[in-house]
Amino acid sequence: MNRRVQFLSSKSMLIRAVLIIIACGIIGLLVNAFHPQKVRLGFHRPDSSATGAQEDDSTGEQLQVTRIDRSQLKSLLAGPDIVLLDARIPEAYIAGHIPDAINIPWDMLGEYYSALNSIPREIGIITYCDGPPCETAEQLAMELKKLNFQKVLLYYDGLDDWKAAREEIREGPEHGE
Amino acid sequence: MVNEKQMTIINLAVRLILAAIFIYAAIGKIINPALFAREIDNYRLLPWLLVSLLAASLPWVELGCGLLLIAGRWLRPAALILIALNVVFILAMASALLRGLNINCGCFSLGEKGSQVGLLRIVEDLVFLGMAVWVYWKGERNIK
Known about the structure:
The complex is a heterodimer of chains A (about 180) and B (about 140).
Chain A: H1 2-33, H2 47-51, E1 54-55, E2 62-63, E3 66-68, H3 70-78, E4 82-86, H4 90-95, E5 102-103, H5 113-117, E6 124-128, H6 135-146, E7 151-155, H7 158-164
Parallel strand pairs in A: 3-7, 4-5, 4-6, 6-7
Antiparallel strand pairs in A: 1-2
Chain B: H1 4-31, H2 33-41, H3 48-71, H4 75-98, H5 119-138
Helix pairs in contact in B: 1-3, 1-5, 2-3, 3-4, 4-5
């Protein structure tokens, strides 16, 4: 008898738990439908998230930065006319970066405009940071687009992905400064 | 030894603190579901469909459980959900740590203000898990 009561009590508790999840889930989905920052439901990631689209404040033009993966990055770095930019803070760069990357910290961009302006506009530029959400590298890439660099790419998976693949990491400042 | 009155106060305190934690955690995510979706997606564990459904509904489940704990109603079902959520959070963060992902945990504040996945966050969730188990265990008498 006692076991039966216990079983019914557990069953009732589980039913209530499921009811809470269903009720709250439905409320969440309804609120999301009218939310200004709503998440897009569906099988595919939204385009803006996949390509890092952003509007150019000055022209209203939609800027897009193409994301590349590690194998694309390696093949591009093996070729000519590519500059790799590390958007993280100098301390993080010194602690470890992708070989031949130049440090252009997004947070201190103002100090680096002259360095950026010395790069020919037709040279391909790849930006990276630690890894997803990789906002600093994405912002740097957008800024480069606005500065009229013609080929700007984003290594979105960043240094986390590079390290996970046990690729070479270089420590210290640029050119042994 | 703790007498019955002191135990009642401890039970109430654990319940209300746990409720406040989950309501606080829910509010940040409810304000920006799109950003929360990105933070779940960064764990690289789920397809986008599940990510988006979770981002829209999970904060409301947290909020609902928190409110039930404050109201003192359906304590064990609410605590059971919080136990399950904490176990999932701990496993997800452990898997991110093992894969060397340097991502936001998506626990409380999101985006730039968010805290990174790390051992401290896992310990924090273990404490919350312990509190939820306590409420589940002590909440039995509230089942009518």
